[in-house]
């Protein structure tokens, strides 16, 4: 399969950067519910509503981001930002995607340290988590309808869901198996990677079509420049902290530790949080036992990637071991430093790899493998949605293990009626009234605030 040359409008900004920045900022305010909710918001905004990018192009980018360490939703935003506006667009999209979460978690960490309790703050988010369940359900349906174009892909999506939800198969193993199956099926079914014919209800053609080639060409010189600048920016804050505060300071320890974890977070935040908790509590003493769970709860109720919980860890660790600095100053500096070293590699991976991946879209073998990964991603989103729903709607869960079976099931008697009612409200607004995601989140959040205040009274 060959691609046409770059479209004329892809030699410059596909959409004005100012307009794109406004869209990314609105998306960033809706990125609750972990990667499933974040991908759902981008799917609806970029593919379905604004028609900035085609469905298959969106899923192709998602498949590539799934292969990388780090939060795939933030990397997907960075990739699409690059497609729309080049390097400037990648930086704007990626930074705006995490900015509200950084600010919110910084504020919540401060409140936690000052008050020792987050009950009042958490009541503000009581209605958001249930609303995300409806948003994720809509995304799974839309992505499945448009992405699973062959029976084998449906089977692959179901298999990925079962492997993750019922047997706790490691995420990298699911992705590798999906790529292999996609490649094998692609050899027997050449039409596997052929886009399906557009339907009348698909709307206008997207600005970035599924077959247009991006204008920015890969080269060794370009890669060397980006790698040199990226590594310098990544290392500079930690080196500066070592010069100013000494090698044994908490800033250097945190900078080096979280720089390492940024490179091994395959499969999202949950894949590495157990290791982070063990080291932060048992080795470095940044947290007290049980505080990682509280930080995770805060991260789950704020916009942005769940891996932002590392910001909470850094804040508490530096506040309790500030060295010569004021504890509050040390906590804020550490929080920002850890955020920096966690996300700079995400930008580096996209800006280095995206031009090469774009040129390889015409390779049938690679396209087939990524098509298999795309199908598996549908199952991944569904499994994350189920996990999120179970932990939102039920207070307690049980782990059922029998042979290879490793299933987390809700305790039915622990059903929480308030989240269930708000979930029903969110589903009604999304599927029946067809409200926007932002409006749905607003109504559900307001409902949660009212209920939370009444319960606290």
Concise summary:
With 457 residues, this protein is mainly α.
Keywords:
single chain, disordered N terminus, 457 residues, two-stranded antiparallel ribbon, mainly alpha, 3% strand
Order of helices and strands: HHHHHHHHHHHHHHHEEHH
Q: Helix/strand-derived class?
A: mainly alpha
What Rg is obtained from the alpha carbons, in whole angstroms?
22 Å
Number of domains: 1
Largest sheet: 2 strands, antiparallel
End-to-end Cα distance: 65 Å
Uncertain ranges: 1-10
Number of strands: 2
Tally of individual helices:
17
Overall geometry comes to globular
Query: What percentage of the residues does DSSP assign to strands (E)?
Result: under 5%
Classify the helix fraction into a percent range. 55-70%
Chain-wise SSE layout:
Layout lengths: L16 H12 L5 H16 L5 H12 L5 H44 L3 H5 L4 H20 L3 H17 L3 H18 L31 H26 L4 H12 L8 H14 L7 H10 L8 H12 L6 H33 L4 H30 L3 E6 L2 E6 L6 H16 L4 H20 L1
Antiparallel strand pairs: 1-2
Helix pairs in contact: 1-4, 2-4, 2-6, 2-15, 3-4, 3-15, 4-13, 4-14, 6-15, 6-16, 6-17, 7-8, 7-15, 8-15, 9-10, 9-14, 10-13, 10-14, 12-13, 13-14, 16-17
Membrane topology: Multi-pass membrane protein
Protein name: Chromate efflux transporter
Family: Belongs to the chromate ion transporter (CHR) (TC 2.A.51) family.
